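Model it.
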Amino acid sequence: MVTTPEQFLQIQKAALEVFQSATITSIEGFEKLTALNVQAAKASIDESTDALKSMTDVKDAKQLAEMPSSTVQPATDKVTAYYKHVYEIANETGAELAKLFEKQVAEGNRQLYAAIDAMVDKLDRQLLKHKGRAGARPHAALKHQADSQPE
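Modeled.
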């Protein structure tokens, strides 16, 4: 339970640190995806250049007809590998963010339970205080009880 301005500031500072960590984790994931895309683009340019060079080396129509079939399977494998990398990056980034938020939720739960405990303790003290007052005036309680009973 927040009872002092220092506690409030500490909670706000912790929340800001979690937000900063989440932002950094997200940016790192974005950097990894960007690096993967740049690498894929470079590989695609190199492969296209190689394909164009090999097209210039074609001597007859039969060789030209066989070229597309020899490049389809490697291209499919590369696309599959690319999306596997994208999935791994997204999964890793998501797992790191989940850890951060789980930590934040656990801290929030801890604070909530502490607040509930403090409230219950305060209610117990007030109840005991009230009972103490009623015990000091037994005649008033008996008078009230006698007045409320039907005859």
